[in-house]
Sequence to fold (527 residues):
Amino acid sequence: MSDPQQPWYAPGPPQQPVPGNPYASEGGGPQGFGPPAVPTPPPRRRFGRGPVVAAVVALVLVVVAGGVYALSDQWRDEPAKPVAKESPGPSGSASPSGTPAAGGPELSHIPTTKEVAAARKPDESTAWIADDRTDLPQQINKVHDLWIVGDTAVQALHRKVTAYRLSDGAEVWNVDLPTSVCETPANPTPDGKVVVFHHERPDNERGNQCNRMRMIDLKTGKQGWSKELDEPGDRDNTFIVHSAISGDVLSVARNMQAITYRMEDGSKLYEIPREHRNKCVPDDVAGGAARLLVTSDCMIAIDRSKNYGQVRELDPRTGKVLWRYRMKTGWSFGSLISMDPVVFTTYNNEDTASDWRITVLDPEGKHRTTFDARAKGFEHCAGEGAGGNIQPCRGTGVGKGLIMLGGTDQVGAYDLRTGKFLWGIKSEELRRLYPLRAEDGKSMLIYEAATSSRPGRTFLMGPRGAGTETNVVKHPVATARWEYEMFMGHTALVDGRLVLTSTHMSGDEDRKPVREARMLSFAPGAP
Fold:
């Protein structure tokens, strides 16, 4: 174990593999730590959120306390721009010309699951790949939230919501919409229903309102009620919409106001009020389980250094304020790390690009601790920044009494109660890591994204230092090119199966014939 006074850079001595691991092959490697990196500021924040295209990997982090982790040098790789047609093919995969390498599918089309299975090597995972031949506009098209409902993975893209079967990737159902989807909540209701928001007009011209709501049962694909957003005030200013589902209540924030609706029939429940003589206006909403958080911008003066942010928890059904927390003057709410307990980022109104903190509240909404993670080189939401909804803050997580932060070259843990830094690793290799879950409170399961020269993998890492890696799933070479395209995408872990999708897909025909896959999934296979 490393010196407790120097937990950040010093890896522990080589150890035996994690005992009692239920998975297959072991994998370790030399220690790969480098000197501290100069902290890179997060992308510039907004004053009035709008969509941005992330430039780094989206990372969902679940880690556990204790120990220091090291990464194997056999996975060393330099970062590369994720443009498939310019990327060299991974060893064993098809060549850019479309001539397949031995055992690999052609790149002139998305390989079928059958082709992937035929190309699979004995030590590789089983995998399926989903294609979607939807004719997309020649622009960057957002791939919306990934929902896991029953035995399906469901997602909206352009004018369609599609469900894929988790076992084999087969399309189960799809719903065609008259216009493109512009907003989705992060999670559905407990019984699998969701409301998608789509544009008023079918064109992609400016001024197209995001003001149509449509309820869909994600278990069956059956459509329910649909309606136009209520528009008190300025009818022609619903371009940016944020939504959240809390139990059976839908909350919608836009244009400095917020309204809740019954999920059952779309009927209006109540308007979320402004506060402080109408100077604190609703800005965004976050849901999950039966909790509802509402953030506000309190615009007291033209001088932004005198303004501040506020967050309230409301009873979703009644609108009663359970508690409210005001940020200090000159600071605003950033992104939500955890709903329970409430953990979020804040940023300085006068330096939105680089000055940010993490704040923890107790169950009554009272301040517990605030700390600065920049000293260890962490970027806001793993470098992805904000843009879009406050939920989620990618590259972060809370569990086992820890706040976990990640990035393209590091992960680390802070004490939830005190904000004290506990341990972490930093690598020179700029690996893109997606820790997926804690394992027995002693190790963590991590997805390492594919690069331009090799497929990804899922591995187990224990708390006893270098040399304890255990490969769980070695992803197939045959799907590496398409996995690389998803390097900053959505991830979900379901009963040991990893599901991946992009966050954006291009409709530019110049990218083809190396087309983007719609969804990928990997699972441990039989030897």
In short: The two ends are 35 Å apart (CA to CA). The first helix runs from residue 113 to 119.
